[in-house]
Amino acid sequence: MSDLRWKPNVTVAAVIERDGRFLLVEEHTSHGLKLNTPAGHLDPGESPAEGCAREALEETAHHFVPTALVGVYMARFQRPPVASAERRDSEEDITYLRFAFAGTLGDFVQGRALDEGIVRTLWMTPDEIRASVDRHRSPLLLQCIEDYLGGARHPLSLIHTDASVYGPPLR
Q1: Would the pLDDT of 18 be above 70?
Q2: Which parts of 30-85 are beta strand (E)?
Q3: Among 14, 43, 98, 156, which residue has the fewest nearby CB atoms (within 10 Å)?
Q4: pLDDT greater than 70 at residue 75
């Protein structure tokens, strides 16, 4: 048994709807161009809602204010090791814990560059999203959209961020 402790990767995602369409990003991945909600890893010193607002801005150049928790999701990503003449990768086995938020889309920041790897933003209908499952970066993308469409909205107060998160790093 390993002495290492298992730790899921915590991510945050923005479910942004306007006039029946959802704001997605198209991004370069090791598996080609994929679609996702604006999402990314939670950074040290921020609450999940703050991380979601930051990721939405970085990936769409729009301000975003989370107003409700859509849900908390887990998914496991596994990929066998890749062996080639140039490199040998280890097996990937990553579990993601995603906090998805609904909220208010704010102003677009003219001239702001999108995060590295983001090709563009696009607005898609639920049917277009359902029809493009093979292009989804995560199996959680569609589940978050379906839950949102089903009315899932939970108060932000369900997530408590202790003041210690904002304190100085431990030494």
Answers
A1: yes
A2: 32-36, 39-41, 62-79
A3: 43
A4: yes
First vs last C-alpha separation in the chain: 29
Token pair for 49: 């809602």
User: What pLDDT is attached to residue 72?
Assistant: 98
Q: Name the pairing type of β-strands 9-15 and 92-108.
A: parallel
Phi-psi region of 129 (alpha: psi -120 to 50; beta: other; left: phi over 0): alpha
List residues bridging with 10 in a β-sheet. 97
pLDDT for the residue numbered 90: 58
Task: Give the model confidence (pLDDT) of 130-170 as tens digits.
Answer: 999 999 999 999 999 999 999 999 999 999 999 999 988 66
Q: Which long-range contacts (CB under 8 A, 24 or more apart) does 165-171 make?
A: 165/45, 165/46, 165/47, 166/45, 169/44
> CATH number for the 9-79+90-155 domain, one of 3.90.79.10, 3.60.60.10, 3.40.640.10, 3.40.50.10330?
3.90.79.10
